[in-house]
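@channel sequence for tomorrow's demo:
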Amino acid sequence: MGFIDEIIQRAKKNKKTIVLPESYEPRTIEACAKLLERGITNVVMIGDREKIQAVAPQWDISGARFVDPENSPLFEAYVQAFYEMRKAKGMTPEKARETMKDPLYFGVMMVKQNEADGMVAGAINSTSNTLRPALQILRTAPGTKLVSAFFMIIVPDCDYGHKGTFLFADSGLVEDPDADQLSEIALSSARTFRQLTGAEPYVAMLSYSTYGSAKSPLTEKVVEATRLAREKAPDLLLDGELQLDAALVEQVARSKAPGSQVAGKANVLIFPDLNSGNISYKLAQRLARAEAYGPVTQGIAKPVNDLSRGCSADDIVGVAAITAVQAINN
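structure tokens (generated this afternoon):
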């Protein structure tokens, strides 16, 4: 059974409710139908039921819950709650009312108020538009300093990683993390990998250098991030700085990083910046024909996850299942 199949089975055993606020988008409607048909999650669609169904009448979404914000009995309470939590930052009751008409904000407020367990959006919205409501309303999880984003990458017929399964971070959110932020991304990613796969994380702090083979401000950031991560989590299997081949290939690891407990075994790949992380996941997806699920967030108090605007309906189903499993773990 593949990674996403295992995730779906876990989601089915403890069914959660996921908001899909981009309800007038055909891929979202198809994903809703598939989630309901397969019994993966309950679904909330934000908007007018008849208008949503009219967009893609071939898909049966009758089992979803439909919530039209301005006609919902929840609306006034959500407006007041949003005003209270943001008034110190200049929020007014009038602006709170307008903001809560936005399906993204209304959907996140449903998660905040325990009307739903998580939200998935981004098929037609940017990452910033998708995550801004989550950061304003849900904020970071206790004990978490930084919200970051990852992709689960599943490479077919691959002997590396955990049966060809990897976590790439940060590949979607934090542009240029400093050493402390990079260490936080590593720690969050290790926890996430264990939660989603049940396997032991082997965390590689990636660079163009291995063990000092090159020195520059770029490599020194990764060296310092490795030191900080080890200091924060001394029992974690984490090593760096490592080149990608040393992180994945045992023969190379024996030459470049002898004695490392991680080199040659890495399944969690921590990239030094968003450029390298985003480029790498797309390379794996297109050249290795890998399945790529994400960007999935980590560090938010409750799961709200982004999609690539080029996603398919099946991608939405996969991210919704991951979001449900995150909610179960929460």
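heads up for whoever presents: The chain has 13 helices and eleven strands.
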